Amino acid sequence: MIKIMVNKYKRNCIADSLKDYCLLSKEGDSIEITEWANGEGYDISISGCWNKAFSITHGEFKAMKRLIKTLRKEPGERIK
To answer: Of 46, 43, 42, 35, nearest to 10 (Cα)?
Structure first.
């Protein structure tokens, strides 16, 4: 007999409509972010005309934010 181990977790999750964030969104488009059970990252699900789902660690998220900030900066402006 095969014994199957099952773990049950309660995870933090938040969702919102995309209408206040994205000009291309339509009625019913939404985003949902769920924190991993181990607290080291997030599962992100975006529903709309192009459904997307991906996972990202805290370090990947930090790198992404910094790179976007760098893309948006004015010449000569320092990035914190």
So the answer is: 35
Please report, for residues 62, 70, 72, the alpha-carbon distance to residue 78 in angstroms, rounded to integers and kept in the order given: 17, 9, 11
pLDDT by residue (tens digit) across 33-53?
999 999 999 999 999 888 999
Give the angle subtended at the CA of 22 by the CAs of 68 and 12, to the nearest 5°. 80
Which H or E run includes 46?
Answer: strand 41-47
The answer to whether the CB of 33 falls within 8 A of the CB of 42 is yes
Cβ-contact 31, 44 below 8 angstroms: yes
Entry pTM: 0.78
Sheet holding 52-57, edge to edge: 13-17, 30-35, 41-47, 52-57
